[in-house]
Amino acid sequence: MNYKTLREANYARQQEWDTENRITLSYRGNELAGEVGEACNLIKKLERERLGIKGSRATREQLAEELADVMICLDLIAMHEGIDLVKAVQDKFNATSKKYELETRLELSS
Ligand SMILES: [Mg+2]
What we know:
Blueprint: H1 3-17, H2 25-51, H3 60-80, H4 85-99
The chain binds magnesium ion.
C-alpha cells in the first residue's frame, strides 16, 4: 500500500458509504477525535501493563488497528478539504528540520 492507494480507496468507499455526500467537516473532526481517543486508551492500557498496575490490558495489534483508523480519518479530512496530505506532511517535516537545523529531509511521492 502507498498513500495514493489509500486516498483512492477512501474515495471509492465514501462513494458507497455516504451516497448522498452528507458528511461534513465537523463530522470528520469528531470522527478523528474519537479514533485518537481509542488509540490513547490502548496506549494507557499498554502503559498500565508496563507499570504493573491492575486493570484491563491491550495489545500492540489493537493499537495498530486504531492508529490505522487515525490515518484513514486524517486522509478523509484532507480529502474533504482538497488537501494534498502527502505534500503537507513533506513540507511540514522539512520545515521543522530546517527550523531546528537538522539534516534529515523527507521526500514522498504522491
Ligand atoms: Mg477505531
